[in-house]
Amino acid sequence: EALSDLLDQGGKDSLEVALCLEATKISPRAFWAFRRLGFLLVHQNKWSEAVQSLQHAIRGYPTCADLWEALGLAYQRLGRFTAAVKSYGRAIELDNKMLFALVESGNISLILGQFKKGVEQFQQALEILPDCVPAQYGLALGLLSLAKDCINLGAYQWGSSLLEEASEVARKSARSFMNISCIWKLHADIQLAYARCNPWIEEVQKLESDKEAFSASIISWRKTRFLAATHARFSYQRALHLSPWQANIYSDIAVTSDLITSLSKNFKQDLSARQLAEKMSIGALLLEGDNYEFWVALGCLSDHNALNQHALIRGLQLNVSLAVAWGYLGKVLSDAISKQ
């Protein structure tokens, strides 16, 4: 073990691995060797071999939180999420300050669709380190996913409140770390979802007798959605500035610009904003010309009938089972026939 320390200090990992392997062959109770070997194999991304060594090491050091955390990481990289969660959970039981284990447990919960559990785990991580970027990102993403579930169930007001909380977390993270593209994109995704789902929740009975109050309420609700969409486009543009090679951000800006146009007072006159959506859709296709979703987006957002038809047909050539594309193509053809 002392020799392993010297090799570790000298950065001679291959010799240290060979020494630990030799020690484990000589004695199956050389738990120190299994522990070192497990950590080294994790460092070398040899996940299957690492699992075996770490399992042996845990027999000798059952209360070592670092071993359980490393075992959880190895299971996670192998796609064995249930085993990974159990290992991370054991590490957290032994040491409730295991930040990495909490963050990765939260990530796995989101992958498995357990959004509420994931949110709780990220919140625990932020109690340990309030400025932890992965935990902030995970919390905002978990709240967004949970909000989408609520919206799909018809709980728009609850979903809207979750989106407000998610937006605040993402905004705080983006302001602290302004050069991370994915955080800006996540903030934009949250704002776009809020602009789409934010419900009008005024009590109709109180407004029935007051037309001015009713009108003001509708205008205020529309303005809230418009501002959210505008903030979303700004954040998408910031993300695109940091990662101009990401085609999906071009498409996101196109969709958001179209929503802004529909919420604008000058819907018919705002020609430049409508053209922006078309240009950004084309920008996405310049980077990924075989992406059927981008073709369908262009077909839905363009103001030119011929381009609508071409884009939708191209999207259907790439994926013939797109119900939205078939429906919109039918609408475009119907409009073209009615104009003749």
TrEMBL record:
UniProt keyword annotations, A-Z: Repeat, TPR repeat
Entry GO terms, CC: Ski complex
An individual GO BP term: RNA catabolic process
Pfam families in the cross-refs: TPR_16
SUPFAM superfamilies xref list: TPR-like
TPR-type repeats, residues: 65-98, 99-132
InterPro entries associated with the record: Ski3/TTC37 (IPR039226), TPR-like_helical_dom_sf (IPR011990), TPR_rpt (IPR019734)
Descriptive protein name: Tetratricopeptide repeat protein 37-like
Organism: Trifolium pratense
Taxonomic lineage: Eukaryota, Viridiplantae, Streptophyta, Embryophyta, Tracheophyta
